[in-house]
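Recall that a protein's primary structure is simply its ordered list of amino acids. Everything else, from secondary elements to tertiary packing, is in principle encoded there. The following example makes that idea concrete.
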Amino acid sequence: MTELSEWDSFYLIVGGAAGALIGLQFVVMTLIASRPQRAGIEVGDAFATPTIVHFGVAFLMAAILRAPWKSVITVAVFLGLVGLAGIAYSAIVTRRMSTQTTYKPVFEDWLFHSILPLSGYAILAVSALAFSSYERRALFGVGGATLLLLFVGIHNAWDTVTYNVFVDNHGASRPESSDNPEEENAAEQNPDAREAEQK
């Protein structure tokens, strides 16, 4: 348990960052939700919700590893459960990404939404297995997995914001404005005139 106590500052920083980013993600999603064009819920399940989950797991890791445990075995059991649950959740997210039809994922999406999170949770599960025999190495594995999930969440949150602000916003079809505002207003008031002009 002496090794574990030396990680207090690390998890204080990581846990604080994860908690702040969870709150910020809620603010961002609220702002995006106020826009008129919104994607289906299947896109949120595949791309937005996992980001909150990764931040939440990083926050949970900080809480678990800073608790005053009496036994290393208890810590290993909790880490193993979180790792296995994360692996299962990553498989579900991968399936959701492949079945949703609103957005076609590119390689970067598969890397940051499927491959890297799955790797982080797998490292967590393996570190839990090695905890009793190789405590120091296992702690570095847990720390690396936690940081990986935190940075994956940061990337995915930023990716979501930039897509909704720059790509989706400018990609929305909008009629080209006329050079003459009076003509545009007249065309809007008289649809027959607009059809005749297009012919």
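The helical segments are 2-5, 8-33, 41-66, 72-99, 107-129, 135-171, 181-189, 191-198. The chain has one domain: 2-170.
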